[in-house]
Amino acid sequence: MSAVTTDKQGEVWVVTLDRPEVRNAVDSPTAQALHAAFLAFEDDPDARVAVFHGAHGHFCAGWDLQYGARLAASGQTGGLDLDFASDDPRALGPMGPSRLRLSKPVIAAVSGAAVAGGMELALWCDMRVMEDDAYFGVYCRRFGVPLIDGGTVRLPRLIGMGHAMDLILTGRKVEAPEALQMGLANRVVPRGQARDAAIALARQLAAFPQATMRADRESALAQWDLPPGEALQQEWQRGKARIPDALAGAQRFAAGQGRHGEF
Question: How many CB atoms lie under 10 A from the CB of residue 4?
């Protein structure tokens, strides 16, 4: 059975990590398979939103330490020396897709453990739907495994430096209520419902005018690197191309669609 499967549900793709014997921990072949799955999603013009899911009750327990131990015993690196150009939006990361810069949103459906590199994969996603008994944590702190899949970059940007330093330095467990409070999770749902809730959210996003949503998403991502004036300018440059879409939307509103905040 493949460690990575893709279920194409029309405009929504569900990419599932399936290595139950190691709580969906990732070795190099699995990383490559995940990377390929999300590149296929990016390149398919009919795909709009992806859901990233871990099968059998866990999102991902991080890099496969048993695999790493076998590499160490054999004197190999297993392809983990993955240097990359900073301007390459399709680069392969140690955990697979963690360096990809996609033009479309990805939603993590988080159940059970999302720890170490698994937490980094969840941080790579645009949103995180978390089950009420799931948890995050930089568990690799215990074994000297570094955060090399974006954890030291995305975590401070997402939840602020104070919270991020607490989690990065201590490696402690973060359960769903705290994750929601600090902005690490976007939604918390009952156990066993993250996948379905994430798919429902993905379908909502897929129903919106795509060009405008993607322009706004890209503007929000790009602004981190820019001073305020330049950030506002790039927002305008992306947004002005979508003004015809806005005028068409105004006509739909005037005709009665979407009144009183109805989606």
Answer: 21
CA separation for the pair 162, 179 (Å, rounded): 14
Looking at residue 46, what is its pLDDT? Answer: 97
Taking residue 120's Cβ as centre, other Cβ atoms within 10 Å add up to: 28
* 51-77: b (≥16 Cβ within 10 Å) or e: bbbbbebbbbbbbbbebbeebeeeeee
The pLDDT of residue 71:
82
* Tokens at 44, concatenated: 């398919």
User: What six digits make up the tokens of 25?
Assistant: 């921990």
Task: With CA atoms as reference, report the closest residue to 119 among 77, 81, 71, 154.
Answer: 154
pLDDT tens, residue by residue, 90-123: 999 999 999 999 999 999 999 999 999 999 999 9
Q: What is the pLDDT of residue 212?
A: 95
Query: Other C-beta atoms within 10 Å of 29: how many?
Result: 13
Q: Is 113 left (phi over 0), alpha (psi -120 to 50) or beta?
A: beta
User: Are 7 and 18 contacting, i.e. CB atoms less than 8 angstroms apart?
Assistant: no
> 14 φ, ψ to 5°?
-110, 110
pLDDT score for 241: 86
The stretches in the chain having pLDDT less than 50 are none
Instruction: Evaluate whether 174 touches 130 at the Cβ level (below 8 Å).
Output: no
Q: What pLDDT is attached to residue 78?
A: 57
DSSP H stretches of helix in the chain: 28-43, 65-74, 117-124, 151-159, 161-170, 176-182, 194-206, 210-222, 228-240, 243-254
